[in-house]
Amino acid sequence: MDMSIRGGQYVGNWRVLMPVIDEAKCVACGLCATICPEAAITGKPKVKPKIDMRFCKGCGVCANECPQKAIEMKKEATK
Amino acid sequence: MADFDVIQGNKALAYGVKLARVEVIPAYPITPQTTIIEYLAEFVANGELDAEYIHADGEHSCMAMAVGAALAGARVFTATCSQGLAYMHECVAQAVNYRTPLLLGVANRTLGWYWSLGPDYSDIMPELNLGYLVNFAESNQEVLDMTLQLYKIAEDYRVLLPTMMSLDGFYLSYSQERVWMPDQEVVDKWLPPYKAPYPVDPTINDKFPTASIPPVMHTPMRRIYEEILQDSRKVIQEVDTSFGKTFGRHYGGLVEEYKTEGAEALLVTMGSMTTAGRRAVDKLRSEGEEIGLVKLRFMRPFPDVEMREIASKVKAIGVVDRMMLHGTRGGGAFQDVKSALYNSNVKIPLQGFVTGMGGEDIPIDDMYLMGKKVLQVAKAKRVEKEVEFIEHKFTGMGKPVEVEWDEPIYPGSDGCAGCGASIIVRHLLKVLGPNTIVINPPSCSGVNYGQAVRVPWILANFAAAAAYETGVYRAMKKKGKADKVCITSFAGDGGTADIGLQSLSGAAERGEPIMWLCYDNEAYMNTGIQRSGSTPLFSATTTTPAGKVIPGKQVRRKNLEMIMAAHRIPYIATASLSYLPDLERKIKKAVEVTKAGKGLAFLHVHQPCATGWYFPENKTVEIGKLAVQTGAWPLMEIDEGNFKLNLKPKELRPIAEYLKPQGRFRHLSEGQLEFLQKDAQTEWSALLELEKRGRFPGY
Q: Nearest-5° angle of CA B217, CA B218, CA B219?
């Protein structure tokens, strides 16, 4: 195995809450993308954010900080 | 009578220390030793153990405190492992000629080299030959019992030498086993308080130890110390017998033999691997093979006489080593057994095995195969390959995922959910760009982002990150590339305010144009929330628990900005992850200053830590904002001596708004809260005053 490979790790199946963006409320300010601790949200001002759920740990910082309250933390669907 | 508990090895050791009524405990965290000092901190904070508990600022100081306290006549305990033990080395050696009978607990972990948290004996190996009595424990019960025994042995006036106890990290330190607890009264009678014969106490004594003697006395002194160490086997044997009489458990002397009667071949083991060895021997015996096992209980003094006698009755010996003496082809125990037999009449083949390095398990199956191999050697009467390395194929570990990404850090770190450091490192690398070299002293970030960043991320030694940076910078300068790369640290508060301060101060004084970014989460979070020099007043951590007698940390934090300002470096700033534009502007400014070759730029970034501060992980950014708005973390900068506050609320919000959501301040009394409120107000007024003056004093 090449130990020099760089990259992130997928999150395990332990996430409890997942963020869901309400497209109607979102004004694409880009704040959630800048503060996501996992860099799992892509988006910048005027571009609506997208969350890569493979990396999201469900911490909820984005939902807590969203000025429009456009992100809701919902219970993870059972797998 | 005595009772039992099911506890970890680290707790067994802590109980042993408590039962021995140790008087001074200097402590510094390092995995997997840390919980020993955490349990002890709890005993002291709750008034269960009346001891001086010292929060050291690094292992070197930690061991120096231990030697100092023992010189003054106290019963002393400290613990460490791996890199920490190596950093201690100088002071470890000094304890011998001072004849300080302290106990140093070593929860083994491999010494980097490649880093790992798992145990092998590469950390204790360089310390073996200093003159210590070195014991290797097999079980948690033995850990507790030997703690008491080692104090009794070491404090015997015939010995008076420091002792070291090895307990394998993880296999013992974190594994729970049944441990019988001796009664305190019985221990008190068996192990009376230590009375140092020559303490450095001029009020009662006029003979003091010396650090240096003329060369002509060195050889005789070495001989005398060696004789004392060799004679200590008598004391070891006596103490073990008396312990057995009092507590009902005894272990034998320097070695323990297992099913050696009538054996043709022997396995020699040490530490926790012995238990797997016993089961392998059981299995081989049940198959009719004549094999036994010898456990090396003490590595120093080395049981050479015992090994000679045991070897004279068998046809071959296999030594299982969890350490490698590079350049000698084999492991440490193997070489010791070999040299013990050389000038004797015993001429039997010796087979060495090296296995379990970096903490890899040594399962019963492997022991079984090693036993088989030694039996073959006994039959053939010769070894084919003197040392065999037992290796396994690499299978585990998730592969990192590469994704389309235009940022310098990949998504998906190994950090906790809601980690603030992740936010900081991402914005740091965004500003610095791809031509960046990050020097990272051990911290959470070293574990979390080493693989997830696209730039060189060099794990530095804890006390020397600024020196690593200096080296990299000077080489780049020599090659004419100094203005093409950014060299920055990404250091925690321990690596900045405590153990790393000396090398940082040196780099600042020399005017090295490098960046230093300290992400301050106000404790040693990577080892599990121990207090650091940056932990705020009254905060509860695992080494300053909110105890019944001592509630939380009792002293104020270091003021790092003022320390750095005393070096008159060109740029100093505090920042917060909750004010990202401000943070990015300050990083840009720091790059400008260093690329212009003006000197060291110091950034001190506040990082709320959900795990360590005990608040819900979605509040990371919110708590950071509150810290700034309540005056707990003022945003300021000192640019070429010009002092400026970057965010000035008309009125500070009450500090309780910041403290109340955090579990680490849950225990605060009204009085303590009021004190903190007043403190924040006073500091804020002083900063306003400073801003009015404009220039920082001393520049």
A: 100
- Report pLDDT digits (tens) over B623-665: 999 999 999 999 999 999 999 999 999 999 999 999 999 999 9
- DSSP 3-state of A10: coil
How far apart are the C-alpha atoms of B375 and B385, rounded to whole Å? 14
- Kindly state the tokens that stand for B44: 């002291």
CA distance A61 to chain B (A): 4
At B1, the pLDDT band (50, 70, 90 cuts) reads very low
Q: What are phi and psi of B468, to 5 degrees?
A: -60, -45
Alpha-carbon distance of B96 to B228, in angstroms, equals: 12
Q: What are the distances in angstroms from CA B663 to CA B7, B612, B659, B666? A: 26, 9, 8, 5
User: ipTM of this complex > 0.90?
Assistant: yes
**pLDDT at residue B405 is higher than 70:** no
Q: Which of A6, A11, A36 sits opposite B410 (nearest CB)?
A: A6
Residues in chain A with CB shorter than 8 Å from the CB of B395 are: none
Model confidence at B20: pLDDT above 50: yes
Partner-chain contact A64 B618, CB within 8 Å: yes
> Which of A15, A53, A64, A74 is best to mutate for the B interface (most B CBs within 10 A)?
A64
End-to-end CA distance of chain A: 31
Q: How do residues B533-584 score in pLDDT, each as one tens digit? A: 999 999 999 999 999 999 999 999 999 999 999 999 999 999 999 999 999 9
Residue B18, classed as helix, strand or coil, is: helix
CA distance B571 to chain A (A): 26
Please name the member of A10, A35, A63 whose beta carbon is closest to the beta carbon of B412: A10
pLDDT tens per residue, range A4-35: 566 778 888 889 999 999 999 999 999 999 99
pTM: 0.94
Question: Who contacts B544 (Cβ-Cβ below 8 Å, separation ≥6)?
Answer: B41, B45, B55, B531, B535, B550, B552, B553, B554
| Contact assignment for B419 to A37 by CB distance below 8 Å | yes
Closest-CA distance, B421 to chain A, in angstroms, reads 8
Q: Which of B426, B616, B619 sits opposite A39 (nearest CB)?
A: B426
Mean pLDDT of chain B: 95
Distance CA B200, CA B99 (A): 12
Give A 36-55 residues with CB within 8 A of chain B.
36-40, 52, 54-55
Structure tokens at B421: 């450091």
User: What is the distance in angstroms between the Cα of A13 and the nearest Cα belonging to chain B?
Assistant: 13
Q: What is the pLDDT of residue B210?
A: 85
